[in-house]
């Protein structure tokens, strides 16, 4: 007898427990979570993630690369000129490169999310401006450094780091943002829903700021969120990244490294109801 799709926490035919109802339901098992019980085999794979491995359909995933820009990751950028350790942000670059290679092989969309502020700054309030300017002498968003205005559309600082530029594809999706979250005031949600994307794999900087707020906003919107731990970094102390990783796997979704992302195992099972 078919499992009632509206009965949350009901027992499923494959021995699990149903979470939520309708097409976005999950099946929770002792050893994995099935994020796509309604999908037919073929593109289904199992990823080795924390806290639990999960099964999903590759065709509905996207890699979201956040803020891999010169102002955060390059010498002479805002992070560097503000006295923060930009080299810590650069630790994400090899992981992002590996994630991009894997996403292309999986046939996933790649979505670049990044700061592109208006030159007149009219869309930024005082709290956001203060995040980047803690003293009168510190250069904030829109103010000039040797290489141009900080995180401003058309500036050097707003460009992607040189190591990633060759890996960008004309078909990739670009989302310009003016807050830490990639969802706030952008078309990211509309793009994801119109393209049938349900699972987001997050990479970029800073993991404890723009990456985490975007992942949290995805969680609030019922997207499946996966943090690629070794493709993220921050100029903040280590405990900031550790807290994000803890919450990502315990609250907002799943955590895995780029090796697990690159090497899922094909999942063989029958078609669920």
From TrEMBL:
InterPro entries: Isochorismatase-like_dom, Isochorismatase-like_hydrls, Isochorismatase-like_sf. Residues 62-259 form the Isochorismatase-like domain. Keywords: Hydrolase. Pfam families: Isochorismatase (PF00857). One of its GO terms (molecular function) is hydrolase activity. CDD domains: cysteine_hydrolases (cd00431). The keyword Hydrolase applies. This is Cysteine hydrolase family protein. It comes from Devosia albogilva.
């Amino acid at each position: 007898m078919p499992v009632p799709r509206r009965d949350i926490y009901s027992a499923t035919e494959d021995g699990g427990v149903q979470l939520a109802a309708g097409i976005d339901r999950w099946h929770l098992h002792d050893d994995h979570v099935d994020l796509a019980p309604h999908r037919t085999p073929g593109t289904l794979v199992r990823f080795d993630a924390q806290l639990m491995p999960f099964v999903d359909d590759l065709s509905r995933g996207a890699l979201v690369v956040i803020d891999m820009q010169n102002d955060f990751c390059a010498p002479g950028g805002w992070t560097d000129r503000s006295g923060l350790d930009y080299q810590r942000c650069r630790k994400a670059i090899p992981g992002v490169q590996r994630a991009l290679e894997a996403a292309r092989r999986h046939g996933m969309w790649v979505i670049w999310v990044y700061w592109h502020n208006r030159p007149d700054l009219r869309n930024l309030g005082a709290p956001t401006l203060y995040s980047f300017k803690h003293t009168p002498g510190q250069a904030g968003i829109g103010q000039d450094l040797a290489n141009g205005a900080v995180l401003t559309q058309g500036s050097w600082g707003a460009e992607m780091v040189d190591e990633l530029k060759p890996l960008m594809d004309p078909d990739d999706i670009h989302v310009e943002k003016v807050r830490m979250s990639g969802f706030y005031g952008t078309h990211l949600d509309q793009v994801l829903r119109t393209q049938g994307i349900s699972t987001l794999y997050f990479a970029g900087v800073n993991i404890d700021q723009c990456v985490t707020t975007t992942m949290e906003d995805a969680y609030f919107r019922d997207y499946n969120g996966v943090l690629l731990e070794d493709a993220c970094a921050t100029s903040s102390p280590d405990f900031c990244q550790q807290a994000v990783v803890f919450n990502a796997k315990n609250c907002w979704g799943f955590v895995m490294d780029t090796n697990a992302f690159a090497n899922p195992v094909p999942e063989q099972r029958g078609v669920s109801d």
